Amino acid sequence: MIFFTGGAVTVGPGQIVSEKKAEILRSHLDIQKGNANTKNIVKATKFFESIAEDASNLSVVIDLFSKSFKLTLVCSLDQVGLMEMKSLAEMTGGSIVMCDSFQNAVFRKSFAKLFERDENGQLKLGTATTLTILNSRTFKVSGIIGFCASCKSKAINVSDTVVGVGGTNIWKLGGIDKESTYAFFFEITNTVTNPGPIPIYIQFLTRYLHSTGHFRLRVTTVKRIMAAGDELRSIADSFDQEAAAALVARQAVYRTMTGEESIDVLRSLDRMLIKLVARFGDYRHNDPSTFRLPKQFQLYPQFMYHLRRSQYMQTFGESPDESCYYRDMLLKETTGNSLLMIQPAILQYTVEVPEAAAVLLEMDSMKQNVILLYDSFFHVLIWHGETIAKWRDARYQDKPEYANVKLLLETPIEDAEQIMNERFPVPKFIICDQGDETGQERIIKNRVIPSNQVITSSLGADYTNEDVTLKVFTNQLYRLAIQSNS
Predict the structure, then answer these.
(1) What is the pLDDT of residues 284-301, one digit of tens each?
(2) Of the N and C termini of the chain, which has fewer Cβ atoms inside 10 Å?
(3) Is 233 exposed, middle or buried (0-12, 13-18, 19+ CB in 10 A)?
(4) 142 with 169: CB under 8 angstroms?
(5) Please, which residues have CB within 8 angstroms of residue 179's CB and are 6 or more apart in sequence?
(6) Closest by alpha carbon to 160, among 144, 146, 145, 141?
């Protein structure tokens, strides 16, 4: 089932706002303060959850395509009630796409991708999916975070400690595709006391209905070695900082979506980070400047720095529907895509080297003589430095003697098209210049790490940011880690 919605629900049990012009749509501040215009949230949410539960039981997948118009902060026309109706997709394994028009490329290309077929002419998706977990007795299943619904199967390997959708070892996943990703959490119930390594096993039984009409069962068995809690070297050598960042981010976002205040989640993230680096860091007594992390941990604080600054933890300037959309996408995407959402990637192109080269997500990378390709999963943005923009406007690319300028301008566009062709939902494509008066440049400026100095262009645009730099953040982190071990 594909649900297209282009306006706020004003009547019926799913109503989020009345037709009275005096009543405005709920904002994050209204929800925090419990203002009068939030009175419909609980009732509307329960209504859509009841529909989602029925659909899940009937193996019906619901895809949401939401059209929003973001004109002014006063009108709040960017909201349709996605926050209340998100369970329709979450509990059935559906897709969510938010765009500003059903005529733009984000909608048209994303909609078409739903019906893509493989080399055999079959749809690239599965339905009526269930997932069962079997595992060693050393630990129990706490839960799963992702688009799913509980089958309420209280087996012997089910933990009383719940993380995400727990209390069961069988879940209904509904619709799945090759990008469907789920986070599993376990509780260790038997501490390892033997001196040697202990093998543990996890088995995933995934049963789904293929587009040919036949049910298929995929059994995946994973073997891992569990070390004792004091074997730090063994734990450090097996630490996957990218997967860990994606898991921690998913759990943090899930907590904010289930009613926990963002500030409390941030404090929890900070405590966890301090504890981690204090345990695995190497330093001289009371000397933060000597603090060093093993290579398996060196990027992890950086991921947490960007997560704290991202729209997943911060809601300023965003509507509840927008926050819900971004957070929901983080709950279902792969590790690579999740890291893109947390820490966007930037590629640099110059006249001397027109091929893409990765650069740091810093304001210092926004130079006048370069082109940047910014990818945050939801946006793919090409940014022209001031000098490059002047060359382009002077039509240097049309002159044979400036073939290198033509190549410089075309290469980022080709790379951007390749990214958009491979991604679902299709990201919004933007081209802007340094000091752009349209305001599109803010998308990249809001996410880059602030530099220690103010960058000023001849267009009068000062690039400043009130956030602390990554260096200040890590220095403070190391100082607190040393104090926690004192």
Answers:
(1) 888 888 999 999 999 999
(2) C
(3) exposed
(4) no
(5) 333, 334, 337, 424
(6) 141
The 10s digit of each residue's pLDDT in 78-104 is: 688 999 999 999 999 999 998 877 888
Q: Cα(314)–Cα(90) distance, rounded to whole angstroms?
A: 22
Expressed in angstroms, the distance from the first to the final Cα of the chain is 58
Confidence of residue 233 (pLDDT cuts 50, 70, 90): confident
Write down the pLDDT at residue 193: 56
CA–CA separation, 474 and 285 (whole Å): 18
Sequence-ordered strand ranges (E) for 177-323 = 183-188, 198-210, 215-226, 282-284, 287-292
* Dist CA 149 CA 90 (whole Å): 8
In order of their start, the domains of the chain are: 2-113 (3.40.50.410), 126-227 (2.60.40.1670), 241-338+472-484 (1.20.120.730), 344-448 (3.40.20.10)
Of 408, 417, 345, 409, the C-alpha closest to 375 is 345
**Structure-model confidence comparison of residues 154 and 74, the more confident one:** 154
Q: Has residue 451 got a pLDDT over 80?
A: no
What's the Rg (C-alpha) of the chain?
24
Q: How many Å is the maximal CA-CA distance in the chain?
A: 74
The full DSSP string for 38-79 is GTTHHHHHHHHHHHHHHHHHTT---EEEEE-----TTT-TT-
